Amino acid sequence: MSDDVEARLRALEEAVAGLRAAAGPAAPPSEPDDPLWALTGLEARAPGSVLLTGSVEVAGHGPVRWQYARPAGDLVDGDWDGAAAVLDALAHPARLAILRHVLTGTATTAELLEQPSVGTTGQLHHHLRQLVAAGWLASTRRGHYEIPVARVVPLLVTVLASRR
User: Fold this and answer.
1) Sign of the torsion angle spanned by Cα atoms 127, 129, 132, 134
2) Are 144 and 108 in contact (CB under 8 A)?
3) What is the pLDDT, as a whole number, of residue 61?
């Protein structure tokens, strides 16, 4: 993992720990039939915040549980310049197809090349470089890739947010 990605992950983990400490005791559970149960809990613990969270099974890793919250003001007032490159890496159908294949267990360049949606060898390597540079993929060893565990839920949230 690159130093930049490791530093960003560390910063995220510290921010989550700080939010947990500042939130105090757990909020009382919301009503079982509350369709906005996650929002109700967020408003009780950290009003004015944005929360990403998820619990999913990932091929080769088992369950992945992830949560990240930030005050909305920090997000609005913060630096947005770095977001363009990270989001741009997702803005190509072949790169999204590669991420989907890797998420479901296709881990090697040879396996990826068997998928018609990823293009030629040269195109695949171009897309892999962009996804690794943006932190959406990590090379575990030569020719083997995985989505870093800390990026699985953000990826799925981004895909979810793209739906209308």
Assistant:
1) negative
2) yes
3) 79
Greatest alpha-carbon pair distance for the chain in Å reads 54
Q: How far is CA 155 from the centre of its chain?
A: 4
Q: How confident is the model at residue 58 (pLDDT cuts 50, 70, 90)?
A: confident
End-to-end CA distance of the chain: 34
Distance CA 107, CA 139 (A): 9
Residues 118 and 112 sit within 8 Å (Cβ to Cβ): yes
- Measured CA to CA, the distance from residue 160 to residue 164 in angstroms comes to 9
Integer Cα distance of 79 and 91 in angstroms: 21
Which residue ranges make up each domain of the chain?
A: 3-77, 81-162
Q: What is the pLDDT of residues 62-109, one digit of tens each?
A: 888 999 999 999 999 999 998 998 999 999 999 999 999 999 998 899
104 touches 59 (CB < 8 A): yes
| CA 36 vs CA 26, 29, 39, 62, 72: distances in Å | 17, 12, 5, 27, 18
Q: Which fold has domain 81-162?
A: Arc Repressor Mutant, subunit A (1.10.10)
Taking the whole predicted model, whether its pTM rises above 0.70 is answered as yes
